[in-house]
Model the fold of this input.
Amino acid sequence: MKDTVRTRFAPSPTGYMHIGNLRTALFAYLYAKSLNGKFILRIEDTDAGRYVEGAVDVIYRTLKAAELHYDEGPDIGGPYGPYTQSERKSIYRQYAERLVEEGKAYYCFCGKEEKGTEPSEGYNRHCRDLSPEQVKALLDEGKPHVIRQRIPLTGTTSWNDLVYGEITVDNSTLDDQVLLKSDGMPTYNFANVIDDHLMGITHIIRGSEYLSSNPKYLLLYEALGWESPEYIHLPIINGQNPDGTISKLSKRHGAVSFQDLVSAGYLPEGIVNYIALLGWSPKTEEEIFTMDELIGRFSVEGVHKSPAVFDYKKLGWINGKHISMLPPEKFSEMAYPFADIEGTALESKWDRLASLLQNRIDKFSDIPEKISFLFRLGEYDTALFTNKKSKSTPESSVTAIEKTIECLKGHDDWSEESLFTAFSSLAEKMGLKLGQLSWPVRIALSGLAATPGGAVDILYLLGKEESLRRLEDALRLILKENLADGK
Done:
């Protein structure tokens, strides 16, 4: 085994980056970097049917946004290129033919009709024992064929997975898998083994769904006379269904690709932080990490065996922490497109509004709902004017709002500083604490129990005309309901 740890991420260019794929890339990156190793990107594009135009660029952009900086790859090169499988076609045939010559693989000329009649039966090994003469005759007549691995019919294959421990599989349960397809392209399983060896990969990190395929990889390494890498299989990621049951994460659970989550307003660093905790624990109570901190804390001992459950609430909490850590000017810049305030009166006050929002959202797409009251005041219950902590009642609110209207009508300087001074002075004159005056005024202005910012902030954002209109409407609403209740 080489001294330098080398891991790889080998995605297929299918058009998007599923959360499970991104976690595989992240863990491979963290494992390599935590041990001062190398992280390699390889594009597995041998399945033309799954290829999506532009998907390779999606992979590049996703890894860059997630700060998974690879040391070698198709776009930056390296000593073991090319790093795109379709450009390595001749390499795979060379090794497949070698295995045939050594009796460790064989030509298979079967069509679908020669396979087992039941899906569980797999291939029935019809061509496994064809004579050399039969094989030559079929090749000479140009009959389409594949090359299959000659799996031992008896015995077992064992390995020590760094997460799941010692695993043993009976060889009799394994199919003679296809190594080279009829079009000359390698299968995923075969290309992986060849490339991982030739690129010096020391540790394979992938999802536990590949555990059942691992014996075939090991038998290929053995057949080729190569030392196999170490294996780290990660627990699957499940999603929670509406009825509370758990199933493998899929689109029915919501946004499950990196691009979808970013479009929904999550920060790349928030997504990465959360995904790191899907199947791994730092063995402490800490949950908020930068990339450098993840590299410093990561170890394979922290990887779990049991499935992880994707929890949007937890993702939101972690992402909100990362949002709050942004420099204010960066938050303002990133949040602005989500606010949709261009051309409105709020546009010139965006920096102030942004400062009120930064610690009050879990993701940028929360912003429209958070600020909707500034554009339209919906119907609200006057019960909101009652607040024990602020000693507010509908009756005391009438007095507070009347005095506020009286104070603000003659107030022309609508800056925050001036409004705060006027409001504080009014509270003092009324013998109230600022919070006692603020509660009913804020309810009148917003119709909400919780808002980004207090009464003075909302007065400033709404402007004089709209603020007075809402205060007067609130006054009429309370008085009307009091009359209706006979008060």
The longest helix spans residues 464-484. The two ends are 86 Å apart (CA to CA). The CA atoms of residues 410 and 464 lie 10 Å apart. The longest strand covers residues 156-161.
